[in-house]
Specification:
The complex is a heterodimer of chains A (341) and B (292). Chain A has 341 residues and is α/β, with parallel strands linked by helices. Chain A contains eight helices and 18 strands. Chain A folds into two domains: 192 residues, HUPs (Rossmann fold, 3-Layer(aba) Sandwich); 121 residues, Rossmann fold (3-Layer(aba) Sandwich), CATH 3.40.50. In chain A, the strands form four sheets. Chain A has a seven-stranded parallel sheet, sandwiched between helices. A five-stranded parallel sheet of chain A has the order 15-14-16-17-18. Chain A is globular, with a radius of gyration of 23 Å. With 292 residues, chain B is an alpha/beta fold. Chain B has a single domain, classed as HUPs (Rossmann fold). Chain B has a ten-stranded mixed sheet. A two-stranded antiparallel ribbon of chain B has the order 2-3. The radius of gyration of chain B is 23 Å and the shape is globular. Classes of the chains: A alpha/beta (341), B alpha/beta (292). Strand 10 of chain A pairs antiparallel with strand 13 of chain B, so a sheet runs across the interface.
Chain lengths: 341, 292
């Protein structure tokens, strides 16, 4: 057993694949661990998962504790929660991180409740810092940074006397460090006595619907807002996305109006994106939307309202009717290609 | 056998209406400054309870932890079809994080006694944590079904169970659990009904009754007396809760800092919507290898 109070990451395995967010978290945890001079460890729960876990070492994880059982093949909160709590009690990490997925957000609160420790939801940044209460100073503790109040504020939360400090972290915000194949993790089996009373949920069916859009892995996103809600404008936005080889995104209002599927939604309650180019067409730029795309490398905003808040974060602003501007962009891009040949 | 259902609700500031200066210097929320509404997904949770009540018969108790002002939220739940509403309110409960909140709610559920189902909204729009539901389930040592977007089936009897559809990132799951169980309901589950005008008119002057308070203190007009037992306020003492586990005392997390979000770039380059302006923009983006 390690004598150091390490960082523990819950490595989520879905359909035999380690979740992207878990790799993101191990990468982030490695950076925090070097500041604290501790190691990164992980815990994984599932069935036939052992072989998948070695690769976590490439991202800086030193040890992976795992528990396998046929009944754990699919996530249910009770056994997963009990197992993770047991691993935490045994290894006493100072920080425990979960992806803010439907799995992480279901199991982390149960673990925090059982261990009576602090838990911060859906963090978008983590730092190491100090906190003072009265005359007592807590050094090297986890600063858990997250938006609240619909994205209008950013709160820094600490759990100074909680052991461990726990957080769920939003998918797609922590940068994955380049994998180093020379590093590998030690894979350590754990024992947990599972009982029938741990399995109160019967998984009848698991349906994986293939996502039609993948906003996270694309370089270019062309997004529609309510200014492009009519069929003609929307087809122009789609055409621009297609022409540029990008994906179609949209604002929450478009999803709420039933025009596009939620998979297209960019923003705080949708997908957080940071493409090379983001083109906002007829999007006013509510804070929830901006929070999900403000880190795009280049932002072009097209809006007929010169005072739309989207212009505050756009690198290029085009004030005008998108129905006239988008065809010009398509033409210019195609013309440019011809010119290049 | 009708189901005994508990629904947890929260009065929240309408976060769509926040202009900026909604926080007190200590980092807590100045709720008074904001329009207060029933947390939207809590209404989806209540709606599922009402649907079960209509189909199978149920007794619905709605509980809410909050300041006295949260009675508004409970009244609204009563107008929509709740049978009993209980405000969990005490200065000792103030400043609670999700752990302390779930502990206090657990004490209230224990006091209510027997139940088959607990419905919570998936998350509240002020904090968006989605933590209190699972934490309450853990404190009660019962099963949980989170992110429920549809209740597919519920059977009565000694071996009763509920079957639900749970949304995930990758699609959905069909899950079955025995009762009692706690469910968190998402906004795609239903469209909550409006308040019943009949109930609203009949009970709009209802006054909440503090436990053990003599009738005179409720200030209730005698004509509403029969219903008064359905509006209760429970404090620290009536719950018999350990004060050190409630409110700020029982909260391991602290708000260190609050920052208003101001998203701006160094400068926006205005591009003319002309063919020339747009051609130059496209050329610039290509030169920088942003597109192409």
């Amino acid at each position: 057993m390690s004598s150091k109070n390490n960082i523990l990451v819950f490595a989520e395995v879905n359909n035999g694949k380690i979740a992207c967010v878990s790799i993101e978290l191990i990468s982030k945890a490695s950076r925090l661990a070097s500041q604290l001079n501790v190691d990164v460890t992980a815990v994984a729960v599932g069935h036939n998962i052992k072989d998948k876990l070695v690769s976590l070492g490439n991202y800086g994880c030193k040890q992976v504790y795992y528990i396998e059982d046929k009944r754990l093949a699919h996530f249910t909160a009770l056994p997963y929660g009990k197992i993770i709590a047991q691993v935490i009690k045994k290894y006493k990490p100072q920080i425990v991180l979960f992806g803010a997925t439907t799995t992480g957000r279901s199991v982390a609160p149960r673990v925090a409740s059982e261990l009576k420790c602090g838990l911060t939801a859906d963090c978008t940044d983590l730092q190491i810092g100090s906190h003072k209460i009265m005359d007592k100073v807590y050094d090297n503790i986890l600063m858990q940074i997250r938006p609240a109040f619909g994205g209008n504020i950013i709160a820094t939360i600490v759990s100074p006397e909680s052991s461990p400090s726990m957080a769920t972290v939003r998918e797609g915000v922590m940068i994955i460090c380049p994998p180093d194949k020379s590093r590998s993790a030690e894979i350590i089996p754990e024992v947990y006595k599972l009982e029938d009373s741990d399995f109160l949920t019967e998984v009848m069916e698991v349906v994986n619907e293939e996502k039609k859009v993948d906003l996270k892995s694309t370089n270019i996103i062309v997004s529609a807002g309510m200014g492009a809600a009519n069929p003609e404008s929307l087809s122009l936005v789609k055409e621009l996305a297609h022409t540029l080889g990008g994906q179609l995104g949209c604002s929450r209002a478009i999803v709420d109006s039933g025009i596009l599927h939620k998979d297209h939604q960019v923003g705080q309650t949708g997908t957080t994106v940071r493409p090379k180019l983001y083109i906002a067409c007829g999007i006013s730029g509510q804070i929830q939307h901006r929070a999900g795309m403000s880190e795009s490398k280049r932002i072009i905003a097209i809006n007929s309202d010169p005072h739309a808040p989207i212009f505050n974060i756009a690198h290029y602003g085009i004030v005008g009717d998108l129905n006239e501007i988008i065809p010009k962009m398509i033409k210019a891009y195609k013309g440019e290609l011809k010119w290049q040949c | 056998m009708p189901f005994k259902i508990i629904v947890t609700v929260k009065q929240v500031p309408d976060t769509q209406q926040i202009t900026g200066q909604a926080m007190k210097p200590d980092g807590t929320v100045n709720r008074e400054a904001l329009p207060a509404i029933v947390n939207p997904e809590d209404l989806n949770a209540l709606e599922e309870a009402i649907k079960i009540k209509i189909k199978y018969g149920a007794h619905i108790t709605v509980i809410s932890m909050g300041p006295p002002k949260a009675t508004e939220t409970l009244k609204e739940c009563y107008y929509r079809g709740a049978d009993d509403v209980i405000l969990i309110s005490d200065s000792a409960f103030a400043g609670a994080d999700t752990l302390a909140t779930s502990f206090t709610l657990k004490c209230a559920v224990d006091k209510i006694g027997k139940y088959d189902l607990i419905f919570c909204g998936r998350q509240a729009i002020d904090g968006d944590t989605a933590q209190v539901g699972p934490q309450l389930a853990e404190k009660l040592k019962i099963n949980q079904l989170t992110f429920v977007c549809q209740i597919m089936d519920i059977t009565e009897g000694p071996k009763n169970h509920i079957t639900v559809k749970r949304s995930t990132e990758n699609g959905y799951e069909i899950l079955k659990s025995a009762l009692p169980v706690l469910l968190t309901i998402t906004n795609s589950a239903n469209k909550p009904r409006s308040a019943s005008v009949k109930r609203l008119l009949a009970f709009k002057n209802m006054v909440f009754r503090k436990e053990n308070a003599p009738f005179e203190e409720t200030g209730l007009h005698p004509k509403y007396l029969p219903a008064s037992e359905h509006f209760k306020i429970w404090g620290l003492e009536s719950l018999g809760a350990d004060k050190s586990l409630c409110g700020l005392n029982g909260s391991p997390t602290r708000v260190k800092k609050i920052k208003d979000v101001v998203l701006t770039t160094a400068g926006t380059k205005q591009i003319a919507g002309t063919e020339e302006g747009i051609s130059n923009l496209i050329r610039e983006l290509k030169a920088e290898h942003i597109i192409g």
